[in-house]
Amino acid sequence: MTKKISTQEAIARVLTTPPGSRVMRPSFGSELYKLIDKPISEEFKIDAMHYVYEAIENNLNIDITKVEATKEKITVFYK
Question: What Rg, from alpha-carbon coordinates, does the chain have?
């Protein structure tokens, strides 16, 4: 039995999984964990947007139109 998940849930899973965590899919995940305990700055936001975009593009079949990062959140726009 296969459970269908929403696009938002799929994005959340890939973004909260560090690469190497899944035995059968070692490249699945994002590098966002590298930003833990880093001060929020412009460099932080650029890195966050890069990690989000890279993780979604490499692991999910989702067409991203834009990724925005603010002090409070990261927003992903997709088709």
Answer: 13
Decide if pLDDT at 41 tops 90: yes
Element (DSSP H or E) covering residue 76: strand 74-78
Does residue 2 register a pLDDT over 70? no
CA 47 to CA 61: how far, in whole Å?
22
Residue 15 CA to residue 31 CA, distance in Å, equals 8
Give the sign of the dihedral formed by CA 71, CA 12, CA 61, CA 23.
Answer: positive
**First vs last Cα of the chain: how many Å apart?**
28
- Residues 36-59 have a mean pLDDT of 95
